[in-house]
Design a protein that fits this description.
Order of helices and strands: HHHHHHHHHHHHHHHHHHHEHEEHEEHHEE
Radius of gyration: 56 Å
Number of helices: 23
Shape: rod-shaped
Strand content: 5-15%
Distance between the termini: 91 Å
Helix content: over 70%
Strand order of the largest sheet: 2-4-5-7-6
Largest sheet: 5 strands, mixed
Number of strands: 7
Length: about 650
């Protein structure tokens, strides 16, 4: 797993190096304008990786001279802001704060981003210089400009020797907004809590928070899903180095020097690697703690090598501790003259700063408390105004609620009316449903009776057909037999209508395509000769007719198809075609057409029509349909057609 993580991190670094140059200082010099240089400077965490802060300081001094010569005020402001930052990074806090103050006075017309950078720089400088009143004034300025929502003093209280008060305020302000998924934020939070506990002499509890912080920063660094920039990795690694160093200081305070040495050595190595040329108070403090641990375990030469490092001890606390450790070293070596020298040196330094520092700290604490009281008063006034506004809003809300109550009463009354109307409608609907059931039952009964009637009519017509068949067998006259067969065919056509009706779900209409097919099949069964060689095409799909029109159509078709089989195709081996076309659309006149490809009509068809029962029957049936029968004679075949309502 560790190997996998190392490979992933190496890939991320490889991607970063392909996108960014390995030397920010060279990129900085190759840029042609101050704005882009300013952006690169503040967006590069490891700007001192290849070139020291002194190189940057020298380069900025040259650019400042050029800007002064060109009278370029914007570039001059940007270069001096970067110069103030470099002075802070070098530990030259007095110079940095003086330059930052001068720049801030000239930034009235500048964008808020420049003011924010300068105020943050002033805040950190005043902390290093222990000018906490000035630091609190800077924070007030940040609030007035809207850079921060609230002023916090917990770190100042800690620096003034009140870590318990600092921890309480810090937890109150930050615990509620902490996101469990923010590993880096949780690491910073637990590290700060641990610092306040350690300074309050609660090392065992502090160790618990430091270990939590170390766990969170490891989770942050090992999270391969969230790809991080090189700056983020450097920042998190530095935080891990500080956390491990804080653990080492706790172990040292608890006299567990073995654990303390391991943690402090690791911390010094990490901070030395990632501080990138920036002056680090944590590195100085951890080195002094490590030297003290070596002296406690009689590894005096290791302690001496650490004390000889040139860290530019800028803070009086570190100077005093270094002198005390050097005195202890020479005491262990038996060099009492040098030991006494460092003890006396420490006494002089302590005497010179003790009284003034104590007075200054007391004055600053009083000023900070006063400042916090003023801030609390301002917050109180702001809260009071908010409460007054809320009170006005509540009064408006009360009147609104009263109006809502009155409206609600009317709504309830209206609702009661609706409920009453609804119950009435339910009662009416129940009556309607009951009546509907009665009507449906009556309709079902009526349909059943109609089907029974049609069934009986069909049976009666079949009985008539059977009687005609018996009569045919007892008749010897060919003319009589032919007349009886024709009558029988017509009876079957009508019987088929009634059969289709009682078989349908809808008793009011007959689907003509199926009826015509059944009728033609019935006629073909009577005229066996050559019937299978005549192709009959029926086009009546989707046409439905009521019984009053279906019966005339059935009888007309019976006459036409019978005539085609009897007279149109006299030869048994003759082939031919019959076309039956029926169309009826809603709101439009219907159209019927019958065509065959037989021998056609005789020349004297008009004279014969008066004596032919079949033609006279068809004409009367067409008259029932409120139309006239049209006959077209052709060389081959015949065509009958008419329109109908």
């Amino acid at each position: 797993m560790q190997l996998f993580l190392l490979l992933v991190v190496s890939v991320v670094f490889a991607q970063d190096t392909t996108e960014e140059s390995e030397n920010p200082f060279v990129d900085f010099q190759n840029i042609s304008n101050s704005s882009d240089r300013f952006s690169l400077f503040y967006n590069t965490e490891n700007r001192y990786n290849q070139n020291s802060a002194f190189d940057w300081k020298k380069s900025l001094e040259d650019y400042i001279q050029d800007a002064e010569s060109d009278k370029d005020s914007i570039s001059l402001f940007q270069y001096k802001t970067m110069q103030s930052q470099v002075l802070y990074d070098l530990g030259e806090y007095s110079k940095s704060v003086a330059l930052a103050n001068e720049l801030y006075k000239d930034s009235r017309e500048k964008e808020i981003q420049y003011k924010k950078i300068l105020l943050e720089l002033l805040d950190r400088n005043y902390e290093k210089l222990k000018l906490y009143v000035k630091q609190s004034e800077v924070r007030k300025e940040k609030k007035e400009l809207g850079i921060t929502d609230n002023i916090s003093f917990y770190d100042i209280y800690s620096n003034l020797g009140l870590p318990g008060r600092a921890r309480k305020d810090y937890i109150q302000e930050n615990s509620k907004s902490l996101d469990p998924a923010d590993y880096y934020g949780n690491a910073v939070y637990n590290n700060n809590i641990g610092n306040y506990l350690r300074l309050d002499k609660s090392q065992p509890v502090a160790i618990i928070h430091y270990k939590k912080a170390e766990g969170f920063v490891d989770l942050y660094l090992d999270d391969v899903v969230d790809v991080k920039t090189e700056n983020q990795i450097i920042k998190a690694s530095l935080l891990k180095g500080k956390i491990i160093g804080n653990l080492g200081k706790c172990y040292a305070d608890l006299k567990d020097f073995k654990k303390a040495i391991l943690s402090l050595k690791e911390s010094v190595d990490i901070i030395s690697e990632y501080r990138m040329g920036v002056h680090s108070s944590e590195l100085v403090e951890n080195t002094l703690y490590l030297a003290d641990c070596y002296l406690q375990t009689d590894e005096v030469e290791k302690a001496k090598s650490l004390l000889d490092k040139d860290f530019r001890f800028l803070q009086s606390d570190y100077i005093l501790k270094r002198n005390r450790l050097l005195a202890a070293y020479y005491d262990k070596k038996g060099d009492f003259e040098n030991s006494l020298y460092y003890y006396k040196k420490n006494i002089r330094v302590r005497d010179s700063i003790a009284s003034s520092e104590q007075t200054i700290n007391s004055q600053q604490l009083e000023a900070i408390v006063q400042s916090e009281l003023e801030n609390s008063k301002a917050l109180y006034l702001e809260s009071k105004q908010n409460l007054e506004l809320k009170s006005i809003e509540m009064e408006k809300l009360d009147s609104t609620i009263s109006f809502v109550y009155i409206s609600l009463i009317f709504v309830l009354l209206g609702f009661a009316g609706l409920v009453y109307a609804y119950l009435r409608s339910i009662k009416v609907q129940r009556i309607i449903v009951k009546q509907k059931h009665i009507i449906e039952a009556s309709l079902v009964e009526k349909d059943s009776l109609l089907k029974e009637i049609h069934h009986r009519v069909k049976n009666n017509l079949q009985m008539v057909s059977s009687l005609l068949s018996l009569q045919t067998k007892n008749t010897r006259s060919k003319a009589a037999i032919q007349a009886l067969e024709e009558g029988k065919s017509r009876v079957k056509a009508m019987a088929l209508i009634h059969q289709k009706l009682y078989q349908n779900d809808d008793l009011s209409v007959i689907e003509m395509q199926g009826y015509i097919e059944s009728l033609v099949n019935s006629i073909q069964s009577v005229y066996k000769k050559g019937g299978h060689k005549i192709n009959i095409n029926i086009d009546a799909e989707g046409v439905e007719l009521d019984i009053d029109r279906a019966i005339p159509f059935g009888l007309i078709l019976n006459e036409l198809v019978s005539n085609s089989f009897k007279y149109g195709f006299p030869d048994d081996e003759q082939t031919g075609q019959i076309f039956i076309h029926l169309r009826k659309e809603e709101g439009v006149d219907g159209f019927f057409e019958y065509t065959d490809t037989g021998v056609g009509m005789p020349e004297d068809v008009e004279e014969r029509s008066e004596s032919s029962m079949g033609i006279r029957l068809m004409k009367r049936l067409v008259n029932q349909l409120q139309s006239n029968l049209n006959i077209d004679k052709k060389d081959e075949g015949v065509r009958f057609w008419f329109n109908f309502k």
